[in-house]
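Hi V.,

You were right to ask for the full record rather than a summary. Here it is.
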Amino acid sequence: MSLRVPMPASLVGRVALCASLLLISAILLFWLLFAAAAGEVSREVVDARLVQFAEQIRGYRASRAASVEPLSGTLAGESAPELEASIGGTDVGWIWQVREGGAVVGRSQLLRLTNAAITPAVPGPTNDFVLSDRMTPLGRIRVAERIVDEVPLFAGDNGRTAARVHYLVGISAEQYADYVSQLVLRLRHLFLLALIPVSLAVIGMLVVIVFVLQRHLGRLTTAIGKYEAGETAAIEGRFPRELQRPVDRVNGLLNQNLLLIDRTRKYVSKIAHDVNHPLAIMKNALGGNIDAGLIRRQVDRMEGLVDRYSSLARAIGPDSHVQWRTEVADLLQDVAEGFSILYRRTPLEIDWACPNGLTFPVARHDLEAMVSNLLSNAHKFADSRVEIAAWIDDGTLCISVEDDGPGISPKERAAALDWGKRLDESPPGTGFGLSIVADILALYEGEIRLEEARLGGLRVEISLPGRSA
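Predicted structure:
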């Protein structure tokens, strides 16, 4: 059965809980690492004491050799009790031994009492003392030993030659482990003393972090409350980067929703206005002699209005779930061929140009609706030719549609984008084809530009930024 810690409902509570668990885990992990390190350090300290003790023995032997005659005899240490009194003291646990020329010339009290000697374990001269655990006549001990070729001090030219001296010091394995344990215990006490202020400092830091987080979340909640109360048009305020990004995203969605609502209201108003007129004509016609041709024309007009507004209603925009990339070349080809078939009775040359493999993250229906409206407008006013082109400019999709018609003067181009504004009443239509394109572009934060075409008529260029992906 797995143990699951219940998570608090609030974000601040979760952060505090996670921080507490991390702090406890860090303390436990650090304790384990410290215990291992403390044991290693303690052993190094005791080993250093062994080496230091061995150096004292070597120094004592050198000073004795300089002040008095060299030690002699098989067991010279037995005839020099001041040596054992000066080195090791009354602690019989510390043992030492000096060999010269293969004979023991000095040893500790415990070795003398047991009449024991320890053979060298190092094969020859060494630069430093060698540490090891050995089994000896006194049991298992921790030893530090070294073999040195030493020349007696003040020997002169006729003095003795260099003698090979073996120095050995040691301590029983039990006493060695006891020393290590004592040092580890002292280090643990120091660790606990240091842990208290460090833990308090970390807890204080966590409290500050939680307080700052709660403060910023409180500001965000207040800003959202003002928006819900209608005091602001968006979630206002500057927040840390981690919060500002979702706030900007939400504000973008809110702004898009306002655009969609405004567009819906505009469409509904336009639908009501455009449909009421043919309905009134049909209603009056039913009161007298029915003109079937008039009724049919009004029905066709209503069908066209329904189709046009249905196309607008299906406009998706960049924040929908449609995130796949549209093949721009295939779309332009389909639209151009469709118009060529639809208006084959009025011959018109429609050319299109687009790099092969060009794709763009835009809903296909939205792009098709914009291109179709632009091509429909161009077809109405063109004399004989319409050209369509698509390309990418610095991550932005650009599409241009131009014709060889009469064009639009610079003064009238802004009015051409107004809803229902028809600059020429002769061609059939509703008068809001370009405004439909502008509305869909607004969903993508795109742009539309009206210019004089190279063919002599009107050139319409739209651009969709790549960040919509």
